[in-house]
């Protein structure tokens, strides 16, 4: 009986299947003389290879020829083809077949070759007849790592690359452990992290690390450093750790001021976060539910070099624990985690979120924005600010559901992400104030003029009257669209941005400093030449948004005492006084100077144009949303008037920039006054149904241009 199994193994029958129980019994008493089997789990005689490796996976061509047992005087079948496909032949013909087909058409990986296999390893449909069954038995490859069968060679190469990118180079078929050379060490802000080769592809790796998000991490670090200066120690959470780079930077630079918790729901990511903590000489405090190991730090052993690493869903950990600082950076939208974030965040804490679903936020996939944010948007010249206000509106609604209001500290929209940082104000009154700032926007699709809809629930007969332009009267059809709901409040907090700039200078964050300077100028609506690190009111302004702020004239004591109702009442009263004394907010949205350029005219330089608008009496600044954007309090009509006044004709190449001296020219101040008077007359005549007034205003506003033509 002991000889029966080897004979079955030698046979070329396609229907032979050996039960595992019989195979184990026969292995104890019988040694195979010839490794020939059609099943996918082949027993290999050679001691160089483990037993579970398929016969199509070999190191050398000679090993593949040994399977065929080539002899000059005998016909032998191919070990990787059924007899119906390749009949038995002599050694010279079989050698060419093995070399030119199986060995040449293969995929190489770490010294092994996965040769093409024609055996019946893949299941076929049971309803096929014999000829169709034979035709369906196509060629395939056996993966050396996971034993999967892949039909196409290109798919097999991609399959192996995915294993390598995930770090799954170890295999039960390979006796030698894969070297750790596949890991790459990246250094950023004096912090080292190990990443996988495909660390920049979030859908194909467990350790996502994007070097292009360095600016994003620096801005979040500056915001946390400012909060750490207000009260310490603070508990901060990186809800989506990935490699743990952000939490490691917090703990490494802020030390005892913060208690860092890095969370991720992926087991491989948690393992890599622990390795990166040890790489940066940080101790790891594991989750309470996990078993105690040597690297676990007890409650009494916590110090400034300890990071808590948890493996939970982000919603779960934010429901279970309270934090002072929470950062959300999922793959895509963050709206699924907003309710959990605002549930237990402490009063006057900070919530920051990074949204990378820019295709929907930048109006390339408008239906997705409607599904995720409940917001109707279109592609406009100010689409980046529209995206930031869309995210903040979702944040404000989520906070209001938890009886909390928000104070927007920072809103940045760049090429790869939208970053929003808000301070949480607990109570129904701040929640109501924040909810009232979520309004709809009326946008003219002809001239790109825009205005937020007036407060109130009453329906207006003609909502086009709210727009400063008269495109509805002069253009056919419906000219405006209703966008939103959007956040209508301020996007920046000047005092907080100035302190972030000081932290960036202190820690040497060079990439964040130019952006923060631009944001400060944008928040104050001033040009960069008027920018100063310390504003004149900094010495006397010691409260901001109801939060105690240290200034150079302040003693080292902090009056913010945790857990005392009296201190909260003092802060609440101070916050009311500060809001009453708050200066005018920056104008919403901006205009692109190229979008409104005049045909046949050379525009002035952007900085000179800002000066011209400032001299005309308007608040003006550049914006980080658009390098050619201008944030100004001037309406679009006056924006175009000043732009035309200081533009030069294209054919006058050597003419210096300045006002065009044409007959009948009127001064900008007179134009502003005339436009204001005509606007009043237009409002009075609108009730009588008379139209054409705006056309007259347009004709009076451009007499020089008509004379030039």
TrEMBL record:
Residues 143-163 form the C2H2-type domain. Belongs to the class I-like SAM-binding methyltransferase superfamily. Trm1 family. It comes from the Eukaryota. GO terms for molecular function: tRNA (guanine) methyltransferase activity; tRNA binding; zinc ion binding. GO terms for biological process: tRNA N2-guanine methylation. Residues 26-39 have a biased composition (Basic and acidic residues). This is tRNA (guanine(27)-N(2))-dimethyltransferase. Pfam families: TRM. Coiled coil: none annotated. Residues 15-47 are annotated as: Disordered. It catalyses: guanosine(27) in tRNA(Tyr) + 2 S-adenosyl-L-methionine = N(2)-dimethylguanosine(27) in tRNA(Tyr) + 2 S-adenosyl-L-homocysteine + 2 H(+). Keywords: Isopeptide bond, Metal-binding, Methyltransferase, Nucleus, Phosphoprotein, RNA-binding, S-adenosyl-L-methionine, Transferase, tRNA processing, tRNA-binding, Ubl conjugation, Zinc, Zinc-finger. It is found in: Nucleus, Nucleolus. PANTHER family: N 2 ,N 2 -DIMETHYLGUANOSINE TRNA METHYLTRANSFERASE, TRMT1-LIKE PROTEIN.
